[in-house]
Design a protein that fits this description.
The protein has about 280 residues and is α/β, with parallel strands linked by helices. About 45% of the residues lie in helices and about 15% in strands.
Length: about 280
Amino acid sequence: MKVSIDLLCRKVGMSRQNYYKAHRRRRRKEVDDELIEKLVKVERASQPRLGGRKLYFMLKPEMENAGVSIGRDLFFEALRTNDLLLEPLPASPHTTNSRHSLPVFRNTIKGRRLTGPNQVWVSDITYIRTIEGFLYLSLITDKYSRKIVGYNLGGTLETEESLKALAMALKTKPKGSHITHHSDRGCQYCSHLYVDKLKENDFEISMTEENHCSENALAERVNGILKQEYWLGSTFRNKEQVYRAVEEAIHLYNTRRPHTALNYKTPEQVHRMAA
């Protein structure tokens, strides 16, 4: 038996006018949620681990153009409804060989306030797993802009591989600039070859003093972002696949991923504007 609208309204203590108003709101929410789901899935196709806050900032102009005015809480509710919230991933293990007799340097960047790019570059190495064996990704990141200015993917932990990342970064170094190169005390960065190359290019050298991750936190954070948000923490089928994945991940990280610490700008935007 069909229940009349009037009877239904009396049962729930609602006027006929309010019932239709609520119905329209519910229908509108369904339409809004559907649009949000589509927009999020398009962005997640290239950045599968991009979090809700950054998605909200990036997609807000498109949502407003479509007539969807929604706050962050309701946006997260829409993500939850469509099962689009991210599950946390375990942290990746770290590998640094600091047991060596090579000379080390003190930490000169602790507490330093930066005013622009090309003042401090931070370096680190992380591994990427493949069925064929491990590859090692050397990264150099500008501490102010968060832009990856140099990288190299190699098959060993030899100093030569880290020097290739440095060579790429040097191509972006402004003429006459005096940059501090900060790293952990890994043997690659303490090696005579690496130290000599830094001195040759007028770098100040800074290193973690107690091997604490907090003293090289940005470099560690970049490793985590690439592994967790861009799937470099996966096990790849072959090494050739990794080379393509690394290139795409770093391009997206530099040019597409907004950073909370950068007022939701990308590293490339901040690096270019500030420079």
